[in-house]
Amino acid sequence: MARISRVLMTAPRRPRSLPAVAPAGAQDDVLLARIVAGDDRALAAVYDRHADLVFGLARRVTRDEQLARDITQEVFTHLWEMPTRVDLSRGSLRGYLAVLAHRRAVDEVRRSERRARVESASAPRDHADGPEQGVVDAMTSTWRRARLARALAALPQEQRTALELAYYDGLTYRQVAIALGVPEGTAKSRLRLAMHRLRTALGDEMRATI
Amino acid sequence: MAAADELAALLSLDALEPLEQADAELQLGDFPTALRQVSAALAERTATAPPNGLRGDTLALARRRRRPGNPLGAVAASPPGETFARTVDDVHDLLTALTDDEWLAEAHADHGRVRTLVAHLIGMERLSARWLDPDDTVPPVPDHLSATDDAVAELAGVPARELADRWYAAARKVARRAADGDPAREVPFHEMVTDVAGHLTIRTFELWAHSTDISLATGRATLRLDDARMATLSSRFLRVAPLALLLSGRTRPGRTVRFVLTGPAGGTYDLALSPRDSPDDPDAVVVTDPLELCRLAARRLHPDDLVADVEGDRDLARSVLGGLSALARD
Hints:
heterodimer; A: 210 residues; mainly alpha; Rna Polymerase Sigma Factor, Chain: A; Arc Repressor Mutant, subunit A; 2 domains; globular; disordered N terminus; B: 330 residues; alpha+beta; Nonspecific Lipid-transfer Protein, Chain A; four-stranded mixed β-sheet; two-stranded antiparallel ribbon; 13 helices
């Protein structure tokens, strides 16, 4: 006679470790549903797919390896704790993580070294710098990367410079104005126009894939 | 309009002063999706391979903050006794709504018409009540179908509506008897032995499955168990699933399949593919809905028709899914 009660004693327990290989095909919505259900393997899969973006962005904005590590941990832990905050109708999971990582990185910069960074950003810069050394090809297709590069290159120089100071260096529009020696209104206007042009240049199709 | 556009653009770049940002978020709620996507696109330029060790540190921190396997927003599973009693009430509602013609509808390949199926259930309630009585020595009744032959024959001439009342009384007696005595006592169910909770769970599965048979036969809406009951059935089923694999000859010692059940009745369960094993790192992950899993377990869904995402060893997952209905008794 089989005894169910004995089976109960060896019923499911939690995994000891996570595999290193991410699943290739799972969609964002499935991964999020798995995270909501408590599947830490899904979180590992999300990390494997998007940690390059989160870490790279955090390091670029903070210019600090340790801060970037901390931010990376916080971003993925935030997702694990509050996955229902992700609204896939507003963009992909990758896009959500990018926005979150940028916000955290900017907060960190402003909290820890605000004044110093304004001075540093005022120094002469190579505004045409491209991706950092060691950048991995995280984009799902080369045409998308090329299109982004073309869209950025097509921006008027003063708009691109303002955009890079704001987005990649984490400066406020006021700090951008100081760095460029222009009125605050001009800095604001350049940032608005840059975003408007990028929005148009990238198009709905490409933006939807990010 | 330009001012609003400007505010949205600056917000999407995190380029507002901190106090202004808080005001902007209050004013705009959030910036437009298109700007959010542009902002995310800009991030692609910076993608960089993360340092070694960060993956492990990140996942370890996450697991400390929220225990794996712990679903968010999930309902609490209802106690098995309550699950059974409420399902009895639902099935009674269904039976009392049936017309005379519907009682004669063909509902089941083995049990035939609705009235015969209900007579079978009356026989099962009688048997359950005896199994739940620790002082009653019930002779072995390994076969589920023939176990109720006497009851079916005895009730052949009873009017349909009286059958409904008799079944309801018998099922409520089962619920009462289950509530008395030691809940950990051993309770038979044909060739198996379980405890009171396990017995009631198996019986709830049976009632739910047969109510589905009756609903489909009469063109009525099928009984939809609430999330609390669905959580009870799915979680308790997965605890005993290794036994189903044993009965179906599909044990795989040393292998583990993870079941991720989504939705309010969901959760994450690692299933060792042998009753003697403890779960290890999953060889496959099956992501599905608790309802789908329960339909499969109750033999009301073919494994090939299960709506699920499978990751990892698909052959292993397929084998496991093919054996999960071995505990179902019709």
